[in-house]
Write a structure and sequence with these properties.
The chain has about 120 residues and is an alpha/beta fold. About 25% of the residues are buried. A four-stranded mixed β-sheet has the order 1-4-3-2, covered by helices on one side. About 20% of the residues lie in helices and about 30% in strands.
């Protein structure tokens, strides 16, 4: 069977795409590669095969976690060299620490400014 295509990105919905894009840009070092009023994307460079996008959803409500009546739906893993330093940086950039930390010595659950939970995970050494 022939491939139909390839994965070119992941898009998160939020109320303010530029705010969330700037947060992840500062977190990853990726640059803004596309912007308009309703959609912003970041990538390693403008020609990168994969990017992370942020789409305006005026009524977006952040997922709650942990909550058996809700779910994260999906979440990102960001590999980091130092969990404590990475968590401090997330907070400096406007993110937050999620109250439930199932294994905070192994990974940290944090959230972006729009409330999307994501995990900081140690990079392989």
């Amino acid at each position: 069977m022939d491939d139909v295509g390839f994965l070119s990105g992941v898009v998160l919905e939020c109320r303010d795409p530029m705010e969330v894009a700037r947060f992840y840009s500062a977190l990853t070092g990726w640059q803004l590669v596309f912007t308009d009023d309703d959609f912003v994307a970041i990538g390693e460079d403008p020609d990168a095969a994969f990017n992370l996008g942020f789409q305006r959803a005026p009524a977006h409500e952040p997922p709650t976690w942990p909550d058996p009546r809700s779910s994260m739906q999906s979440h990102l893993h960001i590999k980091v060299r130092d969990l404590d330093a990475a968590e401090r940086r997330v907070l400096e950039l406007g993110g937050s620490r999620v109250s439930a930390q199932p294994a905070s010595m192994r990974y940290r659950v944090v959230a972006d400014p729009a409330g999307h939970p994501f995990c900081l995970v140690p990079a392989e050494r």
